[in-house]
């Protein structure tokens, strides 16, 4: 390994069962319950860990969390439909192509965590745009 790599992201949720229903529907995969308050979904080589903190340890969230989880998907149109059907808190009305070439859409999970779904063959990983 030549340097650090991301292997797990914590997604704070207020209700683990609602989170599991949403993400399982979006990913088309049931994931794996690790503990009563923790459920893992493997996304490529990275685990998206939905974690429900005990009430006494929850902190108020900002109105719009600046941390966005970006997910590469094989079929952005199919994913768009699955996300809409899964009941996000908020979602874009359409898939758009960004000026750097990515085809994507944004949505918030039921707890307000921002997500962006990007068509895999349009991923921008750095370098000149255009």
TrEMBL record:
Organism: Amycolatopsis mediterranei (strain S699)
Residue ranges constituting the VOC domain according to the UniProt record: 5-120
The protein's name: VOC domain-containing protein
Pfam families per the UniProt record, alphabetical: Glyoxalase
Coiled-coil residue spans: none
Cited InterPro entries: Glyas_Bleomycin-R_OHBP_Dase (IPR029068), Glyas_Fos-R_dOase_dom (IPR004360), VOC_core (IPR037523)
Entry-linked PROSITE patterns: VOC (PS51819)
